Amino acid sequence: MTLNSIDDFYKRATATLPEGISKEIGHFNVFEIEKLFDKKTGTRIMPYSRRAYYKISFIQGKNRAEYADKIIEINGSALLFATPKISYHWIPEDDNQAGLFCIFTSDFLSKNRAGIVLDDLPIFRPGELPVFQLTSEQSEELGYLFRKMYKELQTDYIYKYDLLRNLLLEVIHFGQKLQPASSLSSVQNASDRISSLFIELLERQFPLESQEQRLSLRTAKDYANRLAVHVNHLNKVLKEITGNTTTEIISNRIAQEAKILLKQTDWNISEIAYMLGFDDLANFSNFFKKQTSFTPMGFRA
């Protein structure tokens, strides 16, 4: 999806423009974790949309990362890599939360001559374990890099975004060299977690608020790949918990969004069909009629 400006991006994401992000250079920012953590309630303030950004976190404290089929326990300092394409839950387990994290989109690094494709890197690839426990020496080195990014972002240096890209690449390569966290554990509620993460991943694609948006996940296999589980296992889990198959849940949600777009927008039906992942209008019409007993035009009328 091509956006005219970062202002347009935040308007479409129903968010405000965070301080420190350039309108010309790309999407990048750095946050201090402690300032976003409410110790009274034990909750975090989320100043950005997970589905829009890559994220690298330097975390200090006791935490738990929950993925579809595994849990990673962290006690101390850790480095976490997150991509908009993989759903997870990060759960603080004490009040001593500190560190920093940066968020960015792939276009921020596209200006770098390194030519890195983020999704090709193991740390951003589905099925990998992107959480790394750090030694005190590694923590000191990584903390220095994050603090340097945080401070540099506040300066008026004319080439600061070139410097920030280089620092970001250094953090990425730092993570590439680390061994994955070994404290994995299977838990009895793994099925509930898979179901929860599937629903979160499904809902991240909605609502469709711009004709430039289009669903990227359309099939059960698409979701299974993102969750790093076998499609048969995903189907079994969802059938047991919800009573519906993966395909039925996806289809019901797409039909729900189609109804909203048909009733609340004046976009033509071909545009709506394309946004919902249908390349052919006839296929969309057949799908919609099967789900609702109406044609799209009949439902709109």
TrEMBL record:
Q: Which GO terms describe its molecular function?
A: DNA-binding transcription factor activity; sequence-specific DNA binding
UniProt entry keywords in alphabetical sequence: DNA-binding, Transcription, Transcription regulation
Q: Report the Gene3D superfamilies cross-referenced here.
A: Homeodomain-like
- Domain HTH araC/xylS-type stretches: 192-301
Tree of life domain: Bacteria
Keyword Transcription part of the UniProt annotation: yes
Q: Which InterPro entries does the record match to this protein?
A: Homeodomain-like_sf, HTH_AraC
Name of this protein: Helix-turn-helix domain-containing protein
